[in-house]
Design a protein that fits this description.
This protein has no helices and seven strands. It is mainly beta. The protein has a seven-stranded antiparallel sheet, with no helix packed on it.
């Protein structure tokens, strides 16, 4: 019998008394009806508009899969061969508006497995550095 699911999301961003500073938070919850589980993620973020064209952003995220069988391939039922994944991520972004509808971004992201499992490459039981993933990205984006 196929699994049916319901996703719930709530999020908000608010201005602060500090000019140009905004903070926000979100919660994402997945309910797989035929499986007894709790899978959720939450995030907190802050943005600061330093000048008309330059802004800085930071985001922290947490993901928890408390079930043994809800996010992996249908045949294995586990996420990357790992039961009950738990991940934290931190992202820092500098954004500069080059001209109308064109922005540039420099972004650094760190993902970390909190369970000690190797989620980011290699085999289960690989050296501890496989518990971490780093991304440095430079983008030029045209907004339609």
């Amino acid at each position: 019998k196929p699994t049916t699911a319901t996703s719930y999301y709530v999020g908000a961003t608010v201005a602060t008394p500090v000019t140009g500073l905004r903070v926000g938070a979100s919660l994402d919850y997945l309910d797989l009806h035929q499986v007894n589980n709790d899978t959720y993620s939450f995030a907190g973020y802050v943005s600061y508009q330093a000048t008309e064209k330059l802004s800085f952003h930071a985001r922290g995220e947490y993901f928890k899969d408390k079930a043994d069988d809800n996010l992996g391939a249908a045949s294995t039922g586990v996420l990357f061969g790992v039961h009950k994944a738990e991940v934290m991520a931190v992202t820092a972004t500098a954004q500069y508006d080059l001209w109308k509808n064109v922005i540039s971004r420099l972004e650094l992201r760190w993902d970390h497995s909190l369970t000690g499992d190797n989620l980011f490459g290699g085999q289960i039981g690989a050296p501890a550095n496989a518990r971490n993933a780093w991304l440095l990205a430079a983008n030029v984006i045209y907004k339609f």
